[in-house]
Design goal:
The chain is built from five helices and nine strands; from the N terminus they run E-E-E-H-H-E-H-E-H-E-E-E-E-H.
Length: 160
């Protein structure tokens, strides 16, 4: 599925967090939401990105924005990642289905063919969505480069 264009309604989801609590987009109506998709818990780039959001959490909270990280990792993996890096926001588990595809990652178009050392495989392409209080995509960052990313997201929130 393609990435969701700015101005389009964000696809519905209901996923468990690192504590097993279910979060649904419909329950966040009227709030701005940062939904950042990342490949894997506790890898270098994903840890750096998560720590940026952790360190900027007071600014996101001040802006009344909910931050959610999403990956195909399990609830248990997310719990360990949160504990190890003292993350102060919610990680959502989007486990792979019987075909090996994470449903929400697919809905948001971030489950794509990747290549490493000439080997092709399916995986999450680092992408961030800012969903406005109206439930529509207000901003999207594709193939995110980690340094300074949380700052860029905050800047877009201020313009929302």
């Amino acid at each position: 599925m393609p990435l969701i264009d700015i101005g389009r309604k964000a696809p519905a989801f209901a996923l468990q967090d690192q504590d097993g609590t279910k979060h649904a987009l419909k329950d966040l109506a009227g709030k701005a939401v940062v939904l950042y998709f990342y490949p894997k818990d506790d890898t270098s780039g994903c840890t750096a990105e998560a720590c940026q959001f952790r360190d900027q959490a007071p600014d996101f909270k001040k802006s009344k924005v909910m931050v959610f990280g999403v990956s195909p990792d399990s609830v248990e993996s997310h719990r360990k990642f949160v504990d190890k890096h003292e993350l102060n926001f919610t990680l959502l588990a989007d486990p792979k289905d019987a075909e090996g595809d994470p449903k929400v990652c697919m809905k948001y178009g971030v489950w794509q063919e990747k290549s490493m050392y000439g080997r092709k495989y399916m995986g999450v392409v680092r992408t961030t969505y800012l969903i406005g209080p109206d439930g529509k995509v207000a901003e999207r960052w594709d193939k995110v480069k980690v340094p300074g990313h949380a700052d860029a997201v905050l800047e877009a929130i201020r313009e929302l």
